[in-house]
Amino acid sequence: DPRATIEAIRQAIEGFGKKARGIGLSCPGPLDLIHGYILTTTNLGRNWYNYPICEKLSEATGLPVYLENDANLACLAEACIGRGKDYPYVSFLTVSTGVGAGLVIHRQIYQGAHGYDLSRRRGSHLFRYGDHQPCAESRSDGHPCR
Predict the structure, then answer these.
(1) Which of 8, 40, 50, 65 is deepest in the core (most CB within 10 A)?
(2) How many CB atoms lie within 10 A of CB 127?
(3) How confident is the model at residue 44 (pLDDT cuts 50, 70, 90)?
């Protein structure tokens, strides 16, 4: 339940005893990193589909929220403090409830042209496993989902 999760996060932040400057949120994808939405994610359930997580969490906490794909952040960790720290290009593949990948170039996450993933390009569509119709289509207001 997104509301219960956001409330638990809010309470945890209050329990720190110090003022936080912002929230970094790692989440499985697909995500809309530009607008701060969880598009579809198999392990969180349908209540999270097309969910404006950054907006809702920021409203609840009064803090800025930064969303990033979990595979990208795992790749960044490898590139900065892991086995990839001596290399300018680091790629990362994760296989769990889905397959994800990250690419870090000179310790910067490469997100692709539209803030989705490495495979998303203008005019392409994003599909869930087993779907025959796109789950994300371009809208006139720039938001990727209906």
Answers:
(1) 40
(2) 14
(3) confident
